[in-house]
Amino acid sequence: MSHISKSRLTQKQLDAHWMAYTGNRQFKQDPRLIESAAGHYYTDTDGRKIFDGLSGLWTCGLGHNVQQINEAITKQVNTLDYSPAFQFGHEKSFLLAEKITEFMPQELNRIFFTGSGSESVDTALKVARAYWRKKGKGTKTKFIGRAKGYHGAGISGFSVGGIPANRTLYGQGLDSYHLPHTQAPGSEFSKGMSYIGSERAEALLDLITMHDASNIAAVIVEPMSGSAGVIVPPKGYLDRLREICDQHDILLIFDEVITAFGRMGARTGSEAFGVTPDIITMAKQVTNGIVPMGAVAFKQEIYDTFMETGGAEHMLELPHGYTYSAHPLACAAGLASLNLIQTEQLAERVKEMSGNWEYAVHSLRDADPMVTDIRNYGFAAGITIASLDGDASKRPFQIAMSMWDKGFYVRYGGDTIQLAPPFTVEQSEIDSLINALAETFKEVS
Ligand code: PXG
Ligand code: PLP
User: Fold this and answer.
1) Which Pfam families match (predicted)?
2) With a 6 A CB cut-off, is 324 part of the ligand 2 pocket?
3) Which of 83, 409, 421, 432 has the greatest number of beta carbons closer than 10 A?
């Protein structure tokens, strides 16, 4: 499985960086180092061209080295490199906020800026608690997440998150409870939304019975779970969560860090699945991943509640924010990226081509018996691989490494392989990716 890397790094340099979500010991024996990127391809330090099968980390739907975005950032850095985020502002943050509202459901028209998806989740959960306090319902503090959910790496994100490996090391988190995930038996190999599993939304009623709505601030779910391997909501499931939240005065948060801005073949997951939450968290694609940025969209009523109860006008209505909230470079990158998604009609392109994508990924069903499930929506797909010697993550690791050797970057995590090609992917590139996967499945089986 090994490939030769002409890394110029010394062992000391490799050791100095404790890498994020990485098997550091394995990586440092055989580093996979990327030197440059353009369009849909990386070039590694061996000079090999590698197809970007996950659009970075679900970030770069527009591909890499996009001239318009690069120019916008360059111009910005030469004009205003940093602007204090608190009590002073710069014009581009307001332009970007308005631009983001063009992608959000109409009612979610107040945008708060953060530096990442994890900070967006923190922001959404803090505002949910504070909102109820403002409403005189200060006992509403508990959160409900979902098994297999991913909501970032912060203390709040791991608490509401539902991927066991991300939780077990870290002890006590926030007071959070979890809905079951929606991968119901019989839903395997569903194309797009499954007809099986929507009844699992009823579990929210059990949690409400157990904890009482008077103690619950919000339910947070990804409309389509990304990190756990592309788990698409069953038909009717999100609608039912919305209905129960409405009936019990519980805020509904969609974590759209992966699903917002085109990946679902729509402006948001909310639009794709036809359900409007009270709060949407986003990050990644907002700047095409080029400058770190996150944001949270709130229903106007939530914003108004804070303004109306904010005290004297010089007072802060919400004591919350980040040094890098609305960073000028991120705002410039965001405006350029979102303009491109609109003018190039990329969400529409994803929708149009998603049938071809679906056909291609589901053709892998017959590649090898170790493929036990395939799921897809928009330009996303998750493939579940049967475990090897009782180890669920072994084969996905082997597959990803073999794909890297063949010149394809794909994501592996848990028992799945995840795919998310750029919005501008060509059919021939999809075919090459799928052929390489089929070959690799046979190799490692
Ligand atoms: N919420 C969701 C739904 C996410 O997918 C975060 C929050 C956290 O965002 P930051 O920017 O703090 O990482 C995420 C991030 C993968 C993968 O391959 C997914 C994420 C991050 C890295 C890898 O599935 N999601
Ligand atoms: N820790 C210290 C000591 C700080 O001064 C700050 C910000 O001023 C933070 C953490 C938070 O950093 P950020 O605003 O980048 O999230």
Assistant:
1) Aminotran_3
2) yes
3) 421
Sequential pLDDT tens for the chain (445 residues):
455 556 789 999 999 999 999 999 999 999 999 999 999 999 999 999 999 999 999 999 999 999 999 999 999 999 999 999 999 999 999 999 999 999 999 999 999 999 999 999 999 999 999 999 999 999 999 999 999 999 999 999 999 999 999 999 999 999 999 999 999 999 999 999 999 999 999 999 999 999 999 999 999 999 999 999 999 999 999 999 999 999 999 999 999 999 999 999 999 999 999 999 999 999 999 999 999 999 999 999 999 999 999 999 999 999 999 999 999 999 999 999 999 999 999 999 999 999 999 999 999 999 999 999 999 999 999 999 999 989 999 999 999 999 999 999 999 999 999 999 999 999 999 999 999 999 999 999 8
Quote the tokens at residue 390.
Answer: 């009782």
What span, in angstroms and rounded, lies between the C-alpha atoms of 396 and 159?
A: 26
| Residues forming CATH 3.40.640.10 domain(s) in the chain | 70-343
Q: Which ligand does the CA of 284 lie closest to?
A: 1
Class of the 32-65+345-444 domain?
A: alpha beta
d(CA 159, CA 166): 9
Every domain range in the chain assigned CATH 3.90.1150.10 = 32-65+345-444
Task: Count CB atoms within 10 A of the CB of residue 323.
Answer: 10
Ligand 2 pocket check for 397: Cβ under 6 Å:
no
Ligand 1 centroid to residue 134 C-alpha, Å = 30
Topology classification of domain 70-343: Aspartate Aminotransferase; domain 2 (3.40.640)
Instruction: Tell me the sheet residues that pair with 42.
Output: 37, 50
**Side chain identity, residue 431:** D
Lining residues, ligand 1, CB within 6 Å:
57-58, 116-118, 121, 150-153, 222, 226-227, 255, 257-258, 283, 411, 413, 418
Whether this prediction's pTM lies above 0.85 is answered by yes
Contact 218, 137 (CB under 8 A): no
- Closest approach atom of ligand 2 to CA 325: 14
